[in-house]
Design brief:
single chain; 149 residues; alpha/beta; six-stranded mixed sheet; 6 strands; 44% helix; globular
Length: 149
């Protein structure tokens, strides 16, 4: 059975994930290092990991399985999930694939270098209603695909 894993600390689409999980009756793990209210929905389980740079990522990577889905903005975590045979999606609806993850990791390194030198000082564009809508559409397609796997 497909399960959903959410890198939940700064995830802006937790409510949307819950809607999709409820519609498909999928067990969902909200993984964080604290500060999130426990969900009332019995399909959702809050996992609070010890604080540490990659504690939530490590927990997800250790528990995710083939055809499960990870919701994350974290490119290295997405890569780890793909290696497990899982699917990965960003909160804005962009999907990570085996074909795209290498370029995403390389771009991340380049941008980190530019930020470290002060050449880039801004962050990503603000999260929008269009991002939320795209996420819902792509997540629905991803869940249906995962169920067929």
């Amino acid at each position: 059975m497909v399960e959903i894993y959410v890198d939940a600390d700064a995830c802006p689409v937790k409510e949307e994930v819950e809607r999709v999980a409820t519609r498909h009756q999928l067990k969902t793990y909200l993984v964080c290092d604290g500060g999130i209210r426990p969900p009332q929905n019995p399909l959702l389980q809050l996992i609070v990991v010890t604080q540490g740079a990659d504690a939530a990522d490590d927990w997800i990577a250790e528990h995710i399985g083939q055809a499960d889905i990870c919701v994350t903005n974290d490119i290295p975590l997405a890569g780890r999930c793909l290696k497990q045979g899982a699917f990965a999606i960003k909160p804005n609806g962009e999907t990570y694939t085996d074909d795209s993850i290498g370029m995403a990791l390389a771009t991340r390194e380049i941008l980190q270098g530019l930020r470290d030198t002060g050449e880039i000082t801004g962050g990503p564009r603000p999260f929008s209603k269009a991002d939320r809508s795209k996420f819902l559409d792509k997540m629905e397609v991803m869940v249906q695909g995962a169920k067929r796997t």
